């Protein structure tokens, strides 16, 4: 019975996406409750689904559902295993967190919540589909909704960023489709399982197969935003509304990377890499360049959200490197890092959003001395930032450690060295942020000394939406806009989760062992 | 029956005793030290030959207690002098801790000479360097810097020997000596580079010319009783190690021995510090032993080890007498002494015996063993490049060293004991010192006359003398090609002639020598080279660091400039103009182009690769 979870997980958010708009005709603020209720339901289903595939339950560790009763390979198949369960759980948790955060910040339109639910459904679909063409459909759903959400900001630059993303994203998705087309021509099937056996029968040296992989790889590299195909990403992340930045940065590239892992190891399998060593080297090279250049570009930026955007280029470089290493250890690290990176980036973008709403801080210079005025948010951003560097105990340590360990085990000292260098570079740009927050005096802070004390005593968390309206509290703090408490709470919970997950390596291993056992048989 | 004797190596026991000596009251501790040395003497004397305690050391096959004729002889004389030296230490007011260090030094020496494999040997060898350095350092003052130089010398020597041993292991795949069960077929260090490294490494310990400067530098500085220990163990273990490394001998080593005999005696002649003079004589005397080891063969090796045995006796005695003079007068310099024969008859008598022994006068033990080596250099060794008449090259080198020895000991005795008169009264050696000195002096005479050809030898029981201890029977023509007879007219004449030549030589050179200031040895160069070399290295490193620092800071400043304004940097490189600033962020068009370029490249790599 539990295989019904798979279609439900996808269908519920997609269908619910209609209601914000539909009910919006009658009620002005129908969007948030609908989205929240749906997301909570999805989260519950995700937990149920994870339980179903986890070794702790007695059920099968791989759920399969034929859509509309048409059996594979002709029908479309939904597949859920430990790997997709981790992704589904991440998506549903981040969705709930972002919604809580979005309650007061918006974008406050019903269309946004429709888009939000569509995006959630698309991401879940990418995580659960067992069909290559179906994956393209969900990829396009995710892409199109992302473009729209990014453009939902008032900023004109957001529109340009969305347009750029639209062009590049569509081209990237088309490349993926071309690759799938080649593969279809070669094998005559679109079902992942089926194609894997067909490809094995056909031989991995077939030009058609090789070209198919090349197109799919490059298509996903664009979606993941690997240097030099990352150019859409900084603009998109920077100018999108804070809520959207957090949601997209945490999940969209992550799910694309998941899809690449799924196709590389479940469809093309390690034997393909073994038969084409040159492509492995090329992947490792591109990934290493992406790690170093992404970190360097992050170092050059002044805007906070841009720093985090370029940081993603480097972090996904690391995940791509882990994919290219063909090491079980490294791939394990990559999955942990996918989850960790999603949580850390969500924390950082949401924290930046809080500080931006409260103090209008956008650049590193604006952050000078903010730790005094907003100790909780600053502290949590520091925690997430240090986790990103890989300082234990944090989920960032785990991911980096296993990827580096895999690199060493595979004898790729170059990759190991690059990961080490990237740690130093990450430390540099996070260090800039921490320096500004904690060790720099604000540029103009002469006559607000007394009022600053009031701010300290109450700290930013307590400047709640309605309480903050009390002019006596906020009067002294120049241009401080009150921030809802739950936004800070979300940041705190997410930041602490990045630390808590340090102890979760065993849980990851339990879920992933059966999957990796199949990948590396 | 012998199992209790072989349960532990003597070095371990002595090490435990050393710890006890440090902890016990002074009198009890020294008594224990003497008793332990005496027990060890009986122990090594009675234990049958064989390889005991075959075990694993650091994961390799090892023999911790290997007894054969060579190691037994070393063990007997080490234990014998240990008894005397601890007694002398007690009488000379040495601190318990110093004697404890000395005993640990003795213990590690035992470990080295009873090792049955190279690994154990080098392990104990390095420990000897440590313990002897501690012994020197314990005196503090000037001894500290000298001890530091000593430690550096021995660190380098030990490292070279270690390299040689490791290469030998590489060649033979065992550390064991050839004589023990499971040992390799060929004894000694592997030929070629390892042999050269071993010769130099051991050469530091035995004081090869050029590597000897630590000897006169270190031995005069510590406590007088410490010098008695020091003069015995390091160099003699070196001779023993040289034999183990080159059991067949080596031409170059033999000539180095001859050179050392002459060089050491010559430099000794220039010295006015008593213990410094004696230190150069260690080099000279060890030269004879090294010559014997270098010549190789039963006769020469027997001579070398007989000389080790005798040398330890008279050299220990010489350091004891010199120590008593220092102890009573507080004066190290011969020029400021004189006329002590009247004041200290026992010391003067002991000195005379020791001096005649070291110089090789008939009737004393030096005459016996030196004679064997000289005989071997004539009968068992080639004529060499510069024979004079029927004297082979090495032979006349050794004889020349003998003349130098006579001269310098005539000088020592003349200035310390017989020349002029001493102002005021000086007490003679105290009871303990006297007992120690007279016992050794007695042994020097005893081993000089307890030889088969001595006229009175018939009244002594056979084999009680030194010849019974030697590894080969040099009086049997079944063993050696040329049977050695100690007391022949030729030998006695030779000894007397050398003495006369020494006397005449001293008479002739007394004036110029007395005007001579301090003669610089090679260490004058070493110390300067090391000092200025070290200083230039430090200055160089500091400057290099400063240069690196400047470069790094400059690079960071430039990187910061590029980072803060990349647009201006690109413009400076010649892209764009002021009117049309270069666009660094790629737009949609350029991005799509890059994407297509990448996909083309990827497909090309896949299809063509």
Mean pLDDT across the residues of chain A is 84
> Based on CA inertia axes, which overall geometry of chain B fits?
elongated
What's the alpha carbon Rg of chain A, rounded to whole Å? 23 Å
Give the strand line-up of the largest sheet of chain B. Answer: 1-2
Content-based structural category of chain A: mainly alpha
Largest sheet geometry of chain B? 2 strands, antiparallel
Order of helices and strands of chain A: HHHEEHHHHHHHHHHHHHHHHHHH
Biggest pleated-sheet summary of chain A: 2 strands, antiparallel
Which two chains have the most extensive interface, and how many residues on each?
A-B, 29 and 20 residues
Task: Specify the oligomeric state.
Answer: heterodimer
Mean pLDDT of chain B: 88
- pLDDT < 50 stretches of chain B: none
Count of individual beta strands of chain A = 2
Strand content of chain A: under 5%
Tell me what you see in this structure.
The complex is a heterodimer of chains A (521) and B (609). Chain A is mostly helical. Chain A is built from 22 helices and two strands. Chain A has a domain of 217 residues. In chain A, helix 1 packs antiparallel against helix 3 and helix 7 runs antiparallel to helix 9. Chain A is globular, with a radius of gyration of 23 Å. The two termini of chain A are 29 Å apart. About 6% of the residues of chain A have low confidence. Chain B is mainly α and 609 residues long. Chain B folds into two domains: 246 residues, no CATH class; 210 residues, no CATH class. Chain B is 69% helix and 3% strand. A two-stranded antiparallel ribbon of chain B has the order 1-2. In chain B, a hairpin with a 2-residue loop joins strand 1 and strand 2. Chain B is elongated. Chains A and B meet through helix 7, helix 9 and helix 12 of A and helix 21 of B.
